[in-house]
């Protein structure tokens, strides 16, 4: 059977159904063909949508310009503890050039002046159940910064809470400490579990 023009871009099963629906005059018949066509088109669309996805999570986008932040994100962005949003260096530079170097470029809150103020802002967000703030607070305990002593068990406790609230970063941190046995008994299967959860959450 000769193929119809303009059908080369379709998958073979769709192509066969389209050609099978052509009547002798070369026009589409409207009966059962229409149902088969819609069913096949819907199935193919669902398969394409399920196979597609984002290569990077939505949290990797700057909330101001919506561009993906260059990797490694820690070198090309900053987290402001007032709103726990990660902004790209380009937007921070634009805010500074526009005279907003003393306020958050996202929520307009005055920036904290010292470690105690920063810690108070993180704690305030964490007390409200913000998973990102709880994860960030865990990082401060893990590294012993912002005037906190290094406390890995406390960091793990906070990361578990943040992971339960949906933080993929907290799952990543938990995977790392359990897999390497850093501050906790080494548990490679548990570490892999947390890495898998982090990957599934984006």
From TrEMBL:
Membrane-spanning ranges = none
Q: Which Pfam families match?
A: Sel1
Listed SUPFAM superfamilies: HCP-like (SSF81901)
Say which domain of life the source belongs to.
Eukaryota
Q: Which GO terms describe its cellular component?
A: endoplasmic reticulum membrane
Which GO terms of type biological process are on file?
ERAD pathway
Q: What Gene3D superfamilies does its record include?
A: Tetratricopeptide repeat domain
Family membership noted in the UniProt record: Belongs to the sel-1 family.
Protein name (database record): F-box domain-containing protein
* Organism for this UniProt entry: Thalassiosira oceanica
Task: State the taxonomy lineage.
Answer: Eukaryota, Sar, Stramenopiles, Ochrophyta, Bacillariophyta
């Amino acid at each position: 059977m000769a193929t119809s023009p303009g059908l080369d871009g379709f998958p073979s099963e769709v192509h066969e159904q389209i050609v099978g629906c052509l009547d002798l005059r070369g026009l589409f018949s409207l009966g059962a063909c229409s149902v088969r066509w819609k069913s096949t088109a819907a199935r193919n669309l669902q398969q394409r949508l399920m196979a597609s996805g984002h290569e990077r999570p939505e949290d990797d986008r700057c909330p101001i310009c919506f561009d993906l932040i260059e990797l490694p994100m820690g070198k090309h962005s900053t987290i402001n503890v007032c709103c726990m949003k990660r902004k790209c260096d380009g937007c921070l530079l634009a805010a500074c050039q526009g005279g907003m170097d003393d306020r958050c470029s996202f929520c307009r809150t005055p920036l904290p002046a010292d470690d105690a103020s920063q810690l108070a802002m993180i704690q305030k967000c964490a007390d409200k159940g913000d998973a990102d703030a709880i994860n960030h607070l865990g990082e401060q305990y893990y590294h012993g910064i912002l005037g906190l002593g290094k406390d890995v068990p406390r960091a793990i406790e906070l990361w578990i809470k943040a992971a339960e609230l949906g933080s993929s970063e907290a799952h990543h941190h938990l995977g790392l400490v359990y897999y390497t046995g850093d501050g906790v008994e080494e548990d490679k299967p548990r570490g892999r579990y947390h890495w898998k959860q982090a990957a599934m959450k984006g």
